[in-house]
């Protein structure tokens, strides 16, 4: 998925194509070096543009990192949202979404690596990722399949489990047992009752 954003069909103008090249170049550099060790020069070189062209599109390294982080979070959650629109049971929705999110983050390791780093620094990503989880938890509490009271701390614990599963699998490779253990732990936190 090295040129994922460049391959999107809606890139009509040269400006859009250049931005997509910068984003894809930044993903490659950020995933290998991390935000702190990446430079605009490296991102521009990877995108095949001059430094000055980079600055025509982005103010600084933080602005490209913010955009890349948001775009990855959107891509990771978008497919889950589409797949889960027909699932009504909130517990099954959380299980399916968790599995898909972890799998997708590990299938495209560059995305998973950047997502983990961006999650720590960007509240907008935390909000984007947790909004569907929060909706499903509240619905499960309302229909009494989750025997907990709504608590932000519980949501944060669930997200930590998911982040840990992604981190572990990016390091050691995809393992369905870890995903199953993660979803089982989430259901235990929510005190799931069929």
Report a brief summary of the structure.
With 194 residues, the chain is mostly helical. The chain contains nine helices and no strands.
Derived structural class: mainly alpha
Count of alpha and pi helical runs: 9
Query: pLDDT below 50 for ≥5 consecutive residues: which ranges?
Result: none
Average pLDDT level: 92
Instruction: Tell me the number of strands.
Output: 0
> Percent of residues in beta strands?
under 5%
Binned, the helix content reads: over 70%
Largest sheet: none
Name of the level-1 CATH class of the largest domain: Mainly Alpha
Radius of gyration: 18 Å
**Number of structural domains:** 2
Helix and strand element order? HHHHHHHHH
CATH-derived topology of the largest domain:
Tetracycline Repressor, domain 2
Alpha carbon gap, first and last residue = 39 Å
Tell me, briefly, the overall form: elongated
- What CATH architecture of the largest domain do you see? Orthogonal Bundle
Report on this model:
The protein has 194 residues and is mostly helical. The protein has two domains: 14-58, Homeodomain-like (Arc Repressor Mutant, subunit A, Orthogonal Bundle), CATH 1.10.10; 69-189, Orthogonal Bundle (Tetracycline Repressor, domain 2), CATH 1.10.357. 77% of the residues lie in helices and 0% in strands. It has helices at 14-37, 40-47, 51-57, 61-84, 90-107, 109-121, 123-142, 152-172, 176-189. The termini are far apart.
């Amino acid at each position: 998925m090295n040129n994922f954003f460049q391959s999107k069909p809606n890139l009509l103008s040269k400006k859009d194509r250049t931005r997509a090249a910068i984003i894809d170049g930044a993903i490659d550099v950020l995933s290998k070096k991390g935000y702190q060790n990446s430079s605009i020069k490296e991102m521009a070189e990877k995108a095949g543009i001059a430094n000055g062209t980079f600055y025509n599109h982005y103010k600084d390294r933080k602005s490209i990192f913010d955009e890349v982080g948001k775009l990855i979070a959107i891509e990771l959650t978008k497919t889950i949202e589409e797949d889960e629109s027909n699932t009504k049971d909130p517990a099954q929705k959380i299980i399916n979404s968790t599995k898909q999110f972890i799998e997708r983050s590990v299938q495209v390791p560059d995305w998973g690596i950047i997502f983990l780093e961006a999650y720590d620094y960007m509240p907008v990503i935390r909000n984007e990722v947790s909004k569907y989880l929060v909706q499903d938890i509240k619905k499960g509490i309302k229909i009494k399949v989750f025997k907990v009271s709504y608590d932000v701390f519980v949501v944060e614990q669930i997200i930590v489990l998911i982040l840990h599963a992604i981190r572990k699998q990016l390091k050691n490779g995809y393992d369905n047992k870890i995903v199953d253990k993660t979803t089982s732990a989430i259901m235990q936190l929510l005190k799931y009752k069929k």
